[in-house]
Amino acid sequence: VQLVESGGGLVQAGGSLRLSCAASGLFFSFYAMGWFRQAPGKERELVAAIPGGGSSTYYADVVKGRFTISRVNAKNTVYLQMNSLKLEDTAVYYCASARGSNWSLLADEYRYWGQGTQVTVSS
């Protein structure tokens, strides 16, 4: 199984980025997917998640209304559209596939992880 993130980079506050995560080696459409992030000195946190069926998404309160998670099962890809970016969104962002079709808040419930992509928001 391989998860490969792309789309990170440097952006000014208020700007937008779209992260992509291409999956291979798993029955992608079945599994829930999550986007986590980890900032220096902080714990990894779940930012957004989407179930295998694509409905009932989850967003952390700090990104609600600004970030949108989506998936295209035909492309084995999950996306994270990030708008109105803030300085505090700076982190390494990871995509992960859950152990089942429902998402979880717990990182331990995600079996496979990408290598991460850096998002840096500048003032």
Write the layout of secondary structure elements.
Layout: E1 2-6, E2 9-12, E3 17-24, E4 33-38, E5 45-50, E6 58-59, E7 67-72, E8 77-82, E9 91-98, E10 110-113, E11 117-122
Parallel strand pairs: 2-11
Antiparallel strand pairs: 1-3, 3-8, 4-5, 4-9, 5-6, 7-8, 9-10, 9-11
Count of helical regions:
0
How large is the radius of gyration?
A: 13 Å
Helix/sheet category: mainly beta
- SSE order: EEEEEEEEEEE
Unreliable stretches covering 5 or more consecutive residues: none
Q: How would you sum up the global shape?
A: globular
Give helix % range: under 10%
Number of strands: 11
| Percent in strands | over 45%
Specify the biggest β-sheet: 7 strands, mixed
Distance between the termini: 37 Å
**Oligomeric category:** single chain
Mean pLDDT: 96
Provide an overview of this structure:
- There is one protein chain.
- This protein is mainly β.
- The chain is 0% helix and 50% strand.
- It contains no helices and 11 strands.
- Strands 2, 4, 5, 6, 9, 10 and 11 form a 7-stranded mixed β-sheet that branches.
Task: Quickly describe the structure.
The protein is mainly beta and 123 residues long. The chain has strands at 2-6, 9-12, 17-24, 33-38, 45-50, 58-59, 67-72, 77-82, 91-98, 110-113, 117-122.
Q: Key terms for this structure?
A:
4-stranded antiparallel beta sheet, 0% helix, globular
